[in-house]
């Protein structure tokens, strides 16, 4: 049997009685064995018939039944396996047994309401040539089939109409339509719209904003207005940036809704009228005419139309629909006019089910989870230590208001307020770099997901290949004197060569032929493509010689049926060539000629034109590059298995290409994925190098299966049917030329064709990941330094005990710093950190993965070295008036308390900046990776500002704390700088030593290289391949 492109797809369900499906041979194919009553039903007319067969009668049926019994008992297949009743039933349904009644074949589309088929490259051909190759391999060549009483291989795959569906030829009355509208609801997609003001207010409800609100309330309660204003500024800045990014991403469901056409031509009260498409109901009679949009999922009542489904599938070629075929909402009629009956409306349509899948994700991005986990650790630590400090101060007879003010200042200073601002800014700057390589980022956190992506499920057509049929040099001929040029001429004569090409095959033929060779011919008659004959035919005359002949082109098996029974050898040669090219994934188009001058009127096969959609020139190297970076590329295509296998072979992607038969479907009612998806199908999906003949839902299920196994998965797509997979993948990538719905569902939209753009994006994303990881390491270490320093200082040092003799007033009970100084440290550091987005970074050769434990340990080491050095400096300063004090021994002398406060501010500020240059190099010393010029300049400016502030700070008492600049004691200023640099080297040495030890013992699997190839199990056994 040979299926057309439309009928090749089927849904394999439990109890499925479809036994006539022709696909590439696979082991352990499971069919339900047909009972003999089933075979009798077929003989009695239930089976399709062939118009070339004689009308059946009882005697003929008895002969066929006897032949079937003989076949069951004696016949063997080419492989030697005995034929079963199931085999014979399949042959009968396929028309392979002579005498079986069978209807005239017609090309149809698979009609499941949940399926939008990605069709072949031309309505004339579909996949008939490839299906023929599979059938010949399975059943043998024409002589072998004749020996087994098997006739020509005839394609047919009847469409199934649901039992509860009824055609409407008269329309509804207004009352009937209103009643059904009340029952089914409007023909529109439900959309949950969150008001903009609600989105903005939601930005203030996260854990970190709540902490800031508490601090603001406390500052307001103690009437500390300046500090409260600073906190409000930080709060609204964070919220505004987050709201902007949320609002910019857009809404995929809204894009789906906006892409629909709002009107329809409907028959109501016996009259045709243009009505609002949202008022259509199931069972309505609608008119589908050229140029009109299909307003709901409809079944064609009769005749045929050509429909553009680009908005659904991304494919540009129109598809022909016949009586009973289901055409989907959102597509457009490009030729013809038919009446149709509405089958589904609103959420029950293909569009509606796609929208429900898009709206069901609700997942928080991986980067958000990581940031939240780090922030929660710091917040819990900050709250705990600050609460202990507050209780200690109260017990120490410090006034409540003073203790509360200090605690709030410490709490706010220790929380990484700007971590989201700096992270989002780094991602935004990185997204700009990605745009220069043809990748527009719709969701900023997708950059981090792209850096960690280990599996990419890629489309074939247009991404791996050119999406353009190219004529091949191999042209088998079956008559002496013919060659590729002459075959092309005959093929062109079977078309309207003086008019624009009507389909892809005409474009291929007329675009390759030497048009000068057609000048001597005139066309007497032309028979366009028709589904009953499945070929085109031209009657022409040579104006110079007067020769008249017919020429035709079409699928090989169609033209073989035109040949005389005496041309068995030619038929064998044709079949052999079709099989040979089919195994290479190369398409074939047959060309034949009938001489009208010799009186025989016999068709003679001329030759076969061969063509394919070749891989893009850069695809093979791009896949090599992707593998080098630890990304396994899996092909996921709706194309034929043989084409997918050849493409994968050409690109060295592997040979394990599976069809969708082994994958489940979503629940037809709830549209939920099957339970234990990863456990049941994970091994097969990991072992596969690709999938062919995929249903729209299968890409989504493959993505979900791999994600269930813990992999970070990317997916490419271009049509509405790809939108669910793009939405649920860790990284959804809409390829160049994608539909609006696919782009709205995607995280990244490509503006350039091919896979190379994605690989460039992976490299850039990993560089960005490195920058963000360095920043978070620094931010945690800076927070630990500040928090632990003030916490320990409260318990370990009491400045009042170090008050020198003769001082005008006693020093404070405990050491603390004005809010303004703390905010200056935070703002200057975080402001400078934005330049880290431009820092030099090297992309990892393997997918990036957050090792939180290692990051926290590294941050703790950096922070503790800074903290210990700050505490030591504070002790040096407090004991500077004592004869045995370190400063006294250096000859610097005693330092006033106001300058002690300023000196500590300078130390904390400088250490913070220098820690950044240590954190940015990971396991290497800080001098081994040169910083970017802009980062270096930013650091110099910030250090200069901090130094100048420490020198020229006026004598004042902000927050009741005495502060004074170091302009009158520059030796202290110089000592602090030398001290910071000395401990910076010690800090970096401790960091590198810690990394070397962790690598040596492989602490927390720090040396793990998550290569996907190492995780792939061996190919599944026959039992495992079919869950």
UniProtKB/TrEMBL annotation:
Keywords: ATP-binding, Hydrogen ion transport, Ion transport, Magnesium, Membrane, Metal-binding, Nucleotide-binding, Phosphoprotein, Translocase, Transmembrane, Transmembrane helix, Transport. GO terms for cellular component: plasma membrane. Its EC number is 7.1.2.1. It catalyses: ATP + H2O + H(+)(in) = ADP + phosphate + 2 H(+)(out). This is Plasma membrane ATPase. It comes from the Eukaryota. GO terms for biological process: proton export across plasma membrane. One of its GO terms (molecular function) is P-type proton-exporting transporter activity. It is a multi-pass membrane protein. Residues 152-224 form the Cation-transporting P-type ATPase N-terminal domain. The keyword Translocase applies. Belongs to the cation transport ATPase (P-type) (TC 3.A.3) family. Type IIIA subfamily. InterPro entries: ATPase_P-typ_cation-transptr_N, ATPase_P-typ_cyto_dom_N, ATPase_P-typ_P_site, ATPase_P-typ_TM_dom_sf, ATPase_P-typ_transduc_dom_A_sf, ATPase_P-type_domA, HAD-like_sf, HAD_sf. The keyword Nucleotide-binding applies. It is found in: Cell membrane; Membrane. The chain crosses the membrane at residues 210-234, 370-395, 407-429, 776-797, 817-841, 853-877, 897-919, 931-952, 972-990.
